[in-house]
Amino acid sequence: MSRTILEQARIHPAIRERIGRNHADLVGAVQAAVAANPLVVVGMAMNPFPRKARRILDQLGTPYAYLEYGSYLSQWRRRNALKMWTGWPTFPMIFVHGVLIGGTSELEQLIAKGEFPAMLSALRLAE
């Protein structure tokens, strides 16, 4: 997979640090949660899809860490930093052992294919 990102050489030196600091606290908090927890769901209030993903995981009895950042009306600029960091355009963002698996639809697909329980089992064996 290749994702096009503007080359550093094409960013004026005067703004490089500003770009690097753009909501770095939020990205750092998510990175820390992903490093500390086998399953992380990053969502936002008022969005039904993070709620649906959490409900699915609750029904499966699968523990997870949940991080919520604003709603449709707040913190959207901060959430953009997460979208730029991951390349994933929507919420939730679901991480299994540090790997972004996508959102609710992708979680449902992994469950339907029987891959999700295997991913979690592999995690338990590795710990």
UniProtKB/TrEMBL annotation:
Any GO molecular function: glutathione disulfide oxidoreductase activity
Limits of the Glutaredoxin domain: 48-101
PROSITE patterns: GLUTAREDOXIN_2
UniProt GO BP: cellular response to oxidative stress
GO CC annotations, alphabetized: cytoplasm
A Pfam match: Glutaredoxin
Annotated signal peptide: none
Family: Belongs to the glutaredoxin family.
This protein's name: Glutaredoxin-related protein
